[in-house]
Amino acid sequence: MRRTRILWLAFAGCLAVLLTAMAAVSAIALRLDRAERHAHARAAAEEKIRLALWRMDSALLPLVVRESARPYFVYEPFHPLGMAYTWRYRQLAINEVLVPSALLTFSSPDVRVHFQLDENARLTSPQAPTGNQLDLASDGYVTGPQVDEAAARLAELGRLIDRQTLRSLLPAPAPATATRPIALRPGKADEQLPRQQMVAEENVDRLRAQGRGRGFTRDEITSLLNSTNIIARYEANKSAQYQQDVTFNPAVTPAPVAAGQMRPCWIGEALLLARRVNVDGAERIQGCRLHWPHIRETLLADVGDLLPEARLVPGASDADANDAYVLATLPVRLVPGTVPRDLSAARSPVPLSLLIAWACVLTGAAAVAVVLARTVRLSERRGAFVSAVTHELRTPLTTFRLYADMLAGGMVSDEQKRTRYLHRLRDEADRLTHLVENVLAYARLAGPRSTAHTESVRLGDLLARGRERLEALAQRADMRLVVEADEAAENASVRCNASAVEQVLLNLVDNACKYARPAEDRRIHLRAVLDGASAALTVRDHGPGIGPAERRRLFAAFRKSAHEAAHSAPGIGLGLALSRRLARTMGADLGYTPPPDGPGAAFTLALPLDTAP
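Request: output the structure for the sequence above.
Response:
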């Protein structure tokens, strides 16, 4: 018992160490997996945010580039045709040919108004001409409501911006450089236009090659110079007659021009794109006010599939330049909100793998525990078997030795005693034979389970075959065997092994003789009845019966220890276990049923009926 306890304690200790290590490994694996999944989720969210920023910057870039590429002279409603890059914002001569600015009729949902702020803080717009230029603009270019709307937007902007504040937010222009003048020959305007366009294009190419241009496109210059209506306006002639034959001014002194970088900035609630331009030493601020609500809604719609809860917060400053969520094109910060997670990427095989590992470990521990329990039980049964067999062998051997010595020494002179002693020796020999037969039979059945050979036997013949031996066994125990079987039961045929049935009945009757010996009713009943598809052979005695505690291990092999064998009926507790195995090898079954009409024990052997014709 002590060795068994030590064995179980060792197993429990090893299992505790294993489970502790497994729990630690599982905790570390889950923590690392959780950290990895969080890292993947953060990386996926950052990737979506970067993609959203890229989309918004890509959508804004054409707007910023287009505004940055505009030449300085387009911020006046009209400018001289032949001196686009040499005009110094001087007073126009009467005979100069004017063309409308590209911004005069410009319209975009992203831009509210273009403006120019001169050194005297005078705010003008090419879309809101005044004075004589308003009369020119009204002649087929813009309508009165359009000018009024632009003027209202310009007035609203004038209430928001301050020249000094805006100037401090913009970088200073590079040192001014003079551009080459465009010399035109006197002649008709329609004849001069192709040559003028060619010269302008050459001038643009040269400016761009020298790095002095603002990145404006050839198409803008071409569309500007290909205007079909050339308006000649004389200040002295208020009738504004169109002139088909005009003489261009000769070349003038080149105008030094320096334009700064176009930069976005916030002035209050107004989002501006503005730059500082220096022409002939006079500095102007040019730019446009962007339509921020429309731009914001457009940008958020573009990234709605990536960041459905995103917001754009205005007012980012230079201090936020290193903020990864600030747009590169506008001083606006992206607030991504809750980034949707990819559910397919959120699943991890680690929990399932750990679950399988735990199942394997627990299954293995259970298997080891079962094997250990069976090994311990087998060891205990073997010990009990050796102890019980030793006791069971010692008693008849002692009797053999004693009686043999007495008979051999002539110590028994009475013939009746000699006969009684010889009968006792024969009984002990039968007892030893029965014990050895049971042990050998159990040993044969303890190996791989096999099926016994069965045949069809008449139940009456089966009872008659072992009846004499069973009655003799009962008589030796001073008991009487009573066989009860009706005609239907005796004539029924069963599938069984006759030798196995005889041995089972012999074990049952032998147990009844041993355990019902103190009973007043000395009968042992062997009853045969038909029960559905089987024939039931019941062996019942009138002894003390079997208690509930003993019933749980009634059919266990070697259930008797040496102490139990010494203080109970003879035997090693193998008969019932052997009988049940014999019954099941031939397709039958053996069970215990308490008698309903009094004390005692009843065992029923159920044999299948032979249904073959």
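Residues 178-201, 203-253, 561-567 have pLDDT under 50 and may be disordered.
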